[in-house]
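Reminder to self: keep the SMILES exactly as supplied, no canonicalising. Ligand is zinc ion.
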Amino acid sequence: MSASSHDHPELGPPQLAEVADGVFAYIQPDGSWYINNTGFVVGRSSVISVDACATERRTRAYLDRIASVSKAPVTMLINTHHHGDHTNGNSLFGTATIIAQENCRAEMIALGMPGNTGIWEPVDWGEVTLAPPTLTFADRVRLWSDDRPLEVSYVGQAAHTSNDSLVWLPEQQVLFCGDLLFNGGTPFLLMGSVRGAIDVLANVVAPIPARVIVPGHGAPCDPGQIGTVTGYLEFVLATARKGISAGLSPLDLARQTDLGDYDGWLDRERIVGNLHRAYADLGAAGGVNVVGALTDMVAFNGGTPLSCYA
Ligand SMILES: [Zn+2]
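Structure tokens returned for the bound complex:
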């Protein structure tokens, strides 16, 4: 496979948005599988980054973009959660301190670096190596960019994953919320909890007086997106309840489900993984087999690997 097969110029280049003075969101179109958002805060002599990218190529392009704004080194890198699109590029941040909730470190080490498993279209990951967090916290930690605080806090329970953390700049009213919110893409709860995510969005995220929210995927948004995503999660739970009563497997249920307004969201096959997780949340026997759920997503996708433009 040639490297150019991963260029996907039709997606358009990443966009840099200065969402507050010295606070940048780096938005990678189109926000589908493994194409995440990052961001950074520029101080006088150092830069703090929120997340890395999925591949060497994408992470190097991001670092170049930071360097076009500030010649200062990135001294701290926050991981909002352990998923590879947000952490695979960690090793390219040199001596930066890598900061995350303690479960993030454990999950990254357990998962290891990605290969090409047949679940997704093959990806050229490049030269990236496992670089777990070097500073972990249980609940929260406050970082400083000169005199501006960044409040990094664990959401307190499983939601998108077991280790989701928010990055909140109270003075700028900017919230980086990782994959607790998607904008234009289907939320993905397989490694977390549908119920937990609903609770976290209502009781942890919504009370934050954010002016701008940078979601994990898709364009920056306002707090209205919390309701949009919660609507989808409630739909998943309600669908799962019907499927459990009808004795359907998550895959068969997904095949019978009209996604309605959600059908146009990117990566619609996530409904299958989300139903697997919702079944477990609702107490269905057997728990969640992640590999089995991913395999069901491929089946839902007509047996072909899930599209991946990373
Ligand atoms: Zn994620």
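Points to follow up:
The longest strand covers residues 148-154.
The chain has a mean pLDDT of 96.
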